[in-house]
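Reading is simple: each integer encodes one residue's backbone shape. An example follows:

___
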Amino acid sequence: MNDRELGTVVENEFSKSICLRICPEVANFTRAEEVSRSPLQLPPIAPHAESSHGVQLKALERDYRIYSYLSGALVSTSPSMDCILQCIGASSTDNFPDETIENTLIPHDWVKHRPSYWSSGGHDDPDAPETLTYRLNCDMCIVDEIKLQPFKAYFQYGHPIYSSKAVRFWMGHSKLPHGSDSFVTVEDENLMAIADENYVWTYTSPEFPMLQGRPWGRAGSATALGPQASRRRRPGPCLNGELRGSDDY
């Protein structure tokens, strides 16, 4: 591609158009910023003075680099599959730390010869919700699928399945200063960090009913092995920061 052809591609925002075709949610972006300290220098489109037109051309060149990079990431043949980085906290835990939210990051029901799952503390009101809040592994993730697996209690008579009535997901970002985030540890449930005033939720999903197993379980409690937020070949919503799931009993 010669300089003239490249200039036409840049001026017509071709890379952004490709992104919109692959992931229509790109249309919701309010701005695009280039954070690389040494960005690729494109050949100049045409000699121009530093005028308003020149400023506009520089912005188009920047957008070309940003959306070209994003397009490549969206169609990558080997994307990262797990978008969850760390557990911020659960609204309640029955037996902490044995039944901690951190168990949901391991997609196995037995770990080190013992059952591995998260269990809520339970409520007298069976309709009271519980929430699990996670930090995603980068500021922007493409989430196409969330897997949620209720726990089957192999160690109880009849192997009951503890399932929520329905689930809902929120996605957004933290209001806390960068670097001040805290997470669940074996000593701390981190309950203060999950307060709603700490987050801006930019997406709220519909409520998804869950298939019910055997109708047996402690009223007002839930156990889970998931969720696992993953990236698949077909990109979904472009989101950033935090993921929260709610169990509605």
About this structure: Confidence is low (pLDDT under 50) at residues 214-221, 229-239. The first strand starts at residue 84 and ends at 90.
